[in-house]
TrEMBL record:
The lineage of its organism: Bacteria, Pseudomonadati, Pseudomonadota, Gammaproteobacteria, Oceanospirillales. The active site is at 169, 195, 292. It is an enzyme of class 3 (hydrolase). Phosphorylated by CheA. Phosphorylation of the N-terminal regulatory domain activates the methylesterase activity. Its main location: cytoplasm. This is Protein-glutamate methylesterase/protein-glutamine glutaminase.
Length: 348
């Protein structure tokens, strides 16, 4: 198998050297070039024809986002954002994912060997994943801004018997947005675990809440699960639940990562059955790397949960959904644009 050819784009010579060294030492990866600004990167892409690009945001002569926007319109290719991830910078990184970047990685803390080793492993893993991912040309997301939010009528809420639980990872932020754009304020309770850094989950929920009909909130301790509300797992905690009289409320857990993730889809899928019978759930698995959620969705499926899985063609990475299909736990395997209608029909 041919090596994955990588072009490293960053204005810091130190970062370029570090990324080049990490990737060059990994089996099956070749760094074919580096660039310290987007204009040089543009020329090197033409000359070197890389398979994957690593890209910073703040760079001279052209902002990384503008370069990414041009790239995804004219020559779509897998891009991993490698930048400083902070709460302030979270909206910028989310915008990069909207434009077409596959994934993101925080630059390591200098002098922290443990953090550096984790960064190196994740960088290699994400670059290998990116080489196999499906990248779509840039398409503008058309969404209406709904204001004010209207609480669903009791009759509309009662139309749904099942709740929807959903897991996603790589490519999931955009897949979730696309799916929820087809969901009205009169929706059943929806609970989502997306693998996302802590600094992103609040911004992600807020971003969705401004453009979608349902109320979208980041999970917090005591938050009630109710019709018309979509709850996004906190980026550093598993999402679990407790019964409080007639209400079901969110509980954040900082227990150990599961499948290397916290929040974990497996944990949420297992936790929901403590407060809701499996027969009254619809479980959805969207694009993502790895197999988090597969074992739990099989347990749900065996207990009567209806399951819907994103198909391979429309997935950025068919790891998590593919794992569900492989173990025979998928009732419906559908392209992304067909999933919302199916899951809502099943929830009635």
């Amino acid at each position: 198998m041919a090596d994955v050819r990588v072009l490293v784009v960053d204005d810091s010579a130190l970062i370029r050297k570090m990324l080049t060294q990490i990737l060059s030492e990994a089996k099956g990866i070749e760094v074919v070039g580096t660039a310290h600004d987007p204009l040089i990167a543009r020329d090197k892409i033409k000359q070197l024809n890389p398979d994957v690009l690593t890209l910073d945001v703040e760079m001279p002569r052209m902002n990384g986002l503008q370069f990414l926007r041009n790239l995804m319109r004219l020559r779509p290719m897998p891009v991993i954002m490698v930048s400083t991830l902070t709460a302030v910078g979270a909206p910028v990184t989310l915008e990069a994912l909207e434009i077409g970047a596959l994934d993101y990685l925080a630059k390591p803390q200098l002098g922290n060997e443990q953090h550096f080793q984790l960064f190196a492993r994740q960088l290699v893993e994400k670059v290998r994943m990116a080489a196999t991912a499906r990248v779509q040309p840039l398409q503008k997301f058309h969404a209406l801004r709904f204001a004010p939010k209207v609480k669903p009528a009791a009759a509309a809420a009662a139309a749904y018997r099942r709740w929807i639980v959903l897991g996603a990872s790589t490519g999931g932020t955009e897949a979730i947005k696309t799916l929820l754009s087809q969901v009205s304020a009169q929706c059943p309770p929806m609970l989502i675990t997306q693998h996302i850094p802590e600094v992103f989950s609040a911004s992600f929920a807020q971003r969705l809440n401004t453009i979608l009909e349902p109320e979208v909130l980041e999970a917090s301790n005591g938050l009630e699960v109710c019709a018309g509300r979509v709850i996004i797992a906190h980026g550093s905690h598993h999402l679990t639940f407790r019964r409080d009289g007639t209400a079901i409320r969110c509980i954040l857990s900082d227990s150990a990562p599961v499948n290397r993730h916290r929040p974990s889809v497996d944990v949420m899928f297992d936790a929901i059955t403590a407060v809701k019978p499996a027969q009254e759930l619809v479980a959805v698995m969207l694009t993502g790397m790895g197999c988090d959620g597969a074992s739990a969705i099989k347990r749900l499926h065996q207990s009567g949960t209806r399951t819907v899985v994103q198909d391979e063609t429309s997935s950025v990475v068919w790891g998590m959904p593919g794992a569900v299909v492989d173990i025979g736990a998928a009732d419906h395997v559908l392209p992304l644009d067909k999933i919302a209608t199916c899951m809502l029909d099943l929830a009635k």
